[in-house]
Amino acid sequence: MEERTLVIIKPDGVERNLTGHLLKEFERNDLRISHLKTIQPETARVRKHYAELSDMPFFNDLLTYFTRGPVVVFLADGENAVNRVRELVGVTDPKAARPNTLRRLYGIDKSENTIHASDSIESAERETKLWFPELFNA
Ligand code: IDP
């Protein structure tokens, strides 16, 4: 099934000039980048994005990390895109991620893991509305 998922290159990825390289990996894996922008995320939006983690002990650190500099937000389209992107990105902890996944290759630690990708079609829709509201204001 043709799907669209939301991906964010987090501040540690932008800071280390990995943006172009990471985008290329998506294209190389047959994913089409249909919308893309660099933004400075506001804390309120990141709180909404990670609302389900608000009780976690690392939540405040997560907000600080995610808002410390610009992020690159994009939509990746393709066959079975949600799962294929999660596979390409790898699991949360880079040390536990499979070889050649982007987090394994570039993630620093369990917190600064370079990339966010939606975990389901429902999350992708919710997160797309949050980060690309302009696409819905027809
Ligand atoms: P995911 O990004 O792999 O879907 P989530 O559990 O939704 O993982 O966590 C969201 C983000 O919160 C992670 O990508 C990571 O940046 C941060 N995070 C998750 N677990 C920890 C932790 O145990 N310590 C610090 N940061 C964490």
Automatic annotation (TrEMBL):
E.C. number(s) listed in UniProt: 2.7.4.6
Which GO terms of the molecular function aspect are on file?
A: ATP binding; metal ion binding; nucleoside diphosphate kinase activity
Write down the top EC class of this protein.
Answer: transferase
Swiss-Prot/TrEMBL keywords: ATP-binding, Kinase, Magnesium, Metal-binding, Nucleotide metabolism, Nucleotide-binding, Transferase
Q: Which residues bind ATP?
A: K10, F58, R86, T92, R103, N113
| CDD domains assigned to the protein according to its UniProt record, in alphabetical order | NDPk_I
Limits of the Nucleoside diphosphate kinase-like domain? 2-138
Which coenzyme or cofactor does it need?
A: Mg(2+)
Family membership noted in the UniProt record: Belongs to the NDK family.
* PANTHER family from the UniProt entry: NUCLEOSIDE DIPHOSPHATE KINASE
Q: What is the protein name given in its UniProt record?
A: Nucleoside diphosphate kinase
Native source species:
Alkalibacterium gilvum
